[in-house]
Amino acid sequence: MKKSEQQNDLMAKIASLAKRRGFVFPGSEIYGGLANSWDYGPMGVELKNNIKQLWWKRFVQRRDDMVGIDAALIMNPKVWEASGHLQNFSDPLVECKKCHARFRVDHLLLHQRKRGELKCPNCDAEKSFTDPTQFNLMLKTFLGPAEEKANEVFFRPETAQAMFVDFKQVLDTTRRHLPFGIAQTGKAFRNEITPGNFIFRTREFEQMEIEYFVEEKDWKKWFEAWKKEMWSWMTDDLGLADSHIHELEVPDGERAHYSKRTIDFEYDYPFGRDELYGLAYRGDFDLKNHFKEAPYRDAETGQTSWPHVIEPTWGVDRSVLAALIDAYREDSEGDKKRVWLKLPPKLAPYKVAVFPLLANKPQLVELARSVYDGLRKNFMVAWDPRGNVGKRYFAQDEIGTPFCITVDFQSLEDKTVTLRDRDTMKQERVKIAELEALLVKKLA
Question: CA–CA separation, 167 vs 381, rounded Å?
């Protein structure tokens, strides 16, 4: 199998596992679905929440230079006028004259470079495209009973603007001094022309974003500091191999209208190298546009200014996708193939699973339930009494559960259980009374 075929096969396997094991479902599937709409299932929502909670602890709760907000999805349209989104947040669009499929120009050119010919990716018509037109990515809706211009509003295309609009109120209520940051997680919406590649590019997505306010003279220092923080997050927290991550310095003419410098952190997805996260230096563009008078006054000098901004941005959905891809493993045990996810324990939906060896032995079930009930006070624990133990192990491996505990007949005699490790498949006997302390250590 060629490398490209192997990569496409891997992406198909990831999507199949995600659906089969309850990570990600096609949205509205019983009604035929909705293009590029995805729902997070029981495993997916745990993985997603673990990522968000880990991010919040690291970048907000454990720092003394950061505060958080949670702003509305719909804002006054004047926000988007001041930010430049109504004028500049657009992509060039072309349409095939034969099949009327529409494409972003940059995606179309990438497709042509791969194929070496100018054909429609949908119908293979040659040189049949209209001239490019600008397509605004803002997702429009209406507030009020009438769909008229006066009631026109937009779902936010990024979480950033609320952090700028609320900047003065955050200052007034927290008494922060430069440098400091405002963080937010939440949904954003973009009317993408060509969404695709599973949950990589969707019209509804979630961001984890920080606006870090600094003095202009210090922006390079803080840009480098946040670059290191983002690398650390990707490798230490998300568990990605550093060989799969690459920095792309975005050149002049290709950066967002507000950016003076941008780095894209790209990841080697099965469908090719593409953006995972972004780090931008926005200058004082946003605060100057939202505040006629400088919103910041230095407590010592009394001087007023518009602080400059470093913006690290993390996509939640792409974090989930990259974590699944990097964790995916296949190997064999005898004549059986094992599919498993080597997720970092702090990201795994379940930390441990508990089984009775046999479901038809009340004493085993009773003891296993007591172990399960004791552990789930402090851990996310799975319970599975069905089938043989080997199949239960493999089922937990497939969702990334780091450890499995089996209660057997020996457990009834000496109050020990079998603790099985996902990564090595090795088993050890552990006293029930020592389980919790041991798991705390192993899961750290």
Answer: 41
Longest dimension (CA), the chain: 79
Tell me how far CA of residue 135 lies from CA of 104, 150, 192, 369, in angstroms. Answer: 9, 22, 9, 57
For 22, residues 6+ apart whose C-beta sits below 8 A from its C-beta are: 41, 42, 43, 44, 399
Tokens 């508990």: give the residue.
Answer: 354
Residue with tokens 């009775």: 356
Alpha-carbon gap, residue 200 to 268, rounded angstroms: 12
Beta bridge partners of 331: 338
The beta strands (E) that lie in 85-240 are given as 90-95, 102-104, 133-136, 139-142, 152-155, 180-189, 204-214
Residues 262, 194: Cα–Cα separation, whole Å: 23
Burial class, 397, CB count within 10 angstroms (exposed 0-12 / middle 13-18 / buried 19+): buried
Cα within 13 Å of Cα(404), Cβ side:
28
d(CA 13, CA 322): 14
Within 10 A of 162 (CB to CB), how many other CB atoms are there?
Answer: 22
Q: Is residue 28 helix, strand or coil?
A: coil
Give the contacts of 211 (CB within 8 A, at least 6 positions apart). Answer: 160, 163, 164, 181, 182, 282, 309, 310, 311
List, for residues 357-391, the tens digit of each pLDDT value: 999 999 999 999 999 999 999 999 999 998 899 99
What's the pTM value of the predicted model, to 2 decimals? 0.89
pLDDT tens column, 148-204? 988 999 999 999 999 999 999 999 999 899 999 999 999 999 987 766 899 999 999
Which of 360, 387, 374 lies closest to 417 in space, CA to CA? 374
